[in-house]
Amino acid sequence: MQRSFASDNNAPIAPEILAAIAGANVGDAIGYGDDEWTARAVARFREHFGDATDVYFAFNGTGANVAALASLLRPWEAVLAPATAHLATDECGAFERFSGSKIVTVPTADGKLRAADLEPYLHAGHDVHFSQPRAISISQATEFGDVYERGEIEELCAFAHARGLLVHVDGARIANAAAALGTTPRALTVDAGVDALSFGGTKNGLMFGEALCFFDPVQTAGAAPFVRKQAMQLASKMRYLAAQFEALMTADRWLHYAAHANAMTARLYDRVRDIPEVRITRPVRCNAIFATLDRGAIERLKRDFFFYVFEESLPEVRWMTHWATTPDDVDRFADALTRACR
């Protein structure tokens, strides 16, 4: 099968991660996280994010986002998020069904939330007829492949905290964002004022797994362990989740995998940006390219490569690379695209 350019979810497991799973598969271990692998993985996260960080491992991104936010909000409270947020558009109403809280979607020009966008949504009312804003959720990187600079996050957090709001980051691709900005996940989260993070693993080399990180555990009031259980995200054989994260957070593997994915997208961008029939529609910052081209060319290219049409009305496509994409994969895709556009 040709390499997919649809999503980093389609990538194989990184060999170091697979080896870590196999390494954990020896003898018995106490379940539900009372094992040595989980203890070491939590210690790795605290090395990266600080000793006060509370860490809980979950199966998938939806579960991580839902459990993280449900640990912070009460049922009559609301989270403000961009209208394009994965939380609002791609999680089938999971947060609202599970938590009873409301997602208030905020239109944005580019998928990035800014303080000026939020102000009108803070004055709807403070009586029993209105859900009360309690948190802001942003995606890093965004659903359109862009990134929040640290200064933008600091400004957003200062705005939120001055108004009694918490800030959550959907970090399904935070490693890609940090690699693109030449910084660390910590600099883009706890050091910038973020309260909670869903740290992505599945899209960055893992078989499955995300991590819920709370940087001020007092904010959860001890809710997170119970919410994770109710959200069906507590693994009985936790060591296999934890072993993956221990490997990912060791020797900067999180960075190597993400940086390679970004580099392959940069290579693809260099190959396709001068094709006259291809119009790049959004900034190329991480491991995604958005473009418009003729429907016929899309269909011809899809005969050999799998990718998504992101916005059917244009049509706008999304091409993604991942840790295992090779330069040869990119070149074959670019050559096929050139032929499809003729």
Topology (SSEs and partners):
Elements: H1 15-24, H2 36-49, E1 54-58, H3 61-70, E2 77-82, H4 86-89, H5 94-99, E3 102-106, H6 115-118, E4 132-139, H7 150-162, E5 166-171, H8 174-181, E6 196-200, E7 210-214, H9 224-230, H10 238-248, H11 253-272, E8 279-280, E9 288-292, H12 295-302, E10 308-311, E11 316-320, H13 327-340
Parallel strand pairs: 2-3, 2-4, 4-5, 5-6
Antiparallel strand pairs: 1-7, 6-7, 8-9, 9-11, 10-11
Helix pairs in contact: 1-10, 2-10, 8-11, 11-13, 12-13
Task: Identify the CATH homologous superfamily of the largest domain.
Answer: Type I PLP-dependent aspartate aminotransferase-like (Major domain)
**DSSP strand count:** 11
Instruction: Report the sheet with the most strands, covering strand number, pairing sense and barrel closure.
Output: 7 strands, mixed
Taken in chain order, the helices and strands follow as HHEHEHHEHEHEHEEHHHEEHEEH
| Overall form | globular
Structural class: alpha/beta
Question: In total, how many domains does the architecture comprise?
Answer: 2
Which CATH first-tier class of the largest domain would you pick? Alpha Beta
Report helical residue fraction: 25-40%
